[in-house]
Amino acid sequence: MGRGKIVIRRIDNCTSRQVTFSKRRKGLIKKAKELAILCDAQVGLVIFSSTGKLYEYANTSMKSVIERYNICKEDQQVTDPESEVKFWQREADILRQELQNLQENHRQLMGEQLYGLSIRNLQDLENQLELSLQGVRMKKEKILTDEIQELDRKGNIIHQENVELYKKVKISFNKKTHNYTNRSTAQLIPQQLNTHLFNFRMVFVEEENIHRHYFNFSYASLNKNSIVRPQAVQVQQNECVKS
Questions:
Q1: Are 46 and 56 in contact (CB under 8 A)?
Q2: Does 92 share its domain with 69?
């Protein structure tokens, strides 16, 4: 005598229900594996028990199965004009609500429409403003620091260029002085020549604080009375000849 037909309905006994769930879950997963292997199908299976426990199976990966499902669902919505209209209406409603929230948040950040806010909401708004102000200050300080470093770098370059220029001018001056010197006038020229070459000032202006840093680079002044010009030497020689 064969087994009678089983009525498909909820099992009242909790223990029997859990045992039946465990057996049929294993059988369902086995059938899903066989279907994937025999038919080369992409299979994804998601099961939640009555207690909320998750069981899943996918022959590739559950993520790829869900992504493929979403793509097919979107394609079906596009092919159906009525579904497409409803879809874009929902998207427009969502974007409209987001825009309204952003506008309200912006007005609150500007100190407007603060009525109805609780102490907690006002405290959160104050903290948000403090964080925004801190970020602005950090960005401003970074820009000022970069500009000051760039000015310092340019100042060092100019300083080195002036040092090299000073050396070149000094060498040129010594060569010209040697050409102007002879035995009769050697005693009239001082052994040390004070050369006035450069006196420049670089001003670094720091924005906001209006601090000015001066970098002065000076050389000794030229003693005009210590240089004997060729005209003066010629006049003295003529006076000696006349005498």
A1: yes
A2: no
Q: Are 57 and 94 in the same domain?
A: no
Best CA proximity match to 56, nearest among 48, 69, 45: 45
What is the rounded distance in angstroms from the CA atom of residue 125 to the CA atom of residue 111? 10
**For 59-116, what is each residue's pLDDT tens digit?**
988 999 999 888 887 776 656 667 778 878 888 999 999 998 888 888 877 877 777 7
User: 60 vs 2, 23, 70, 74, 106, CA distance in Å?
Assistant: 41, 24, 16, 22, 46
- R_g (Cα) of the chain, nearest Å: 46
Task: For residue 103, give its domain range.
Answer: 88-116
Structure tokens at 237: 């020689």
> CB under 8 Å, gap of 24 or more: what pairs does 32-37 form?
32/57, 32/59, 33/57, 33/59
Tell me which H or E stretch contains 9.
Answer: none
Give the H/E segment covering residue 56: strand 54-58
In a domain, 235, yes or no: no
Q: Tell me how many domains the chain contains.
A: 2
The highest-confidence range among 28-32, 112-116, 238-242, by mean pLDDT, is 28-32
User: If residue 2 lies in a helix (H) or strand (E), which one and from where to where?
Assistant: none
Would 92 be classed as within a structural domain? yes
* pLDDT score recorded for residue 85: 80
| Burial group, residue 47, by CB count within 10 angstroms (0-12, 13-18, 19+) | middle
- Is residue 30, in this structure, part of any structural domain at all? yes
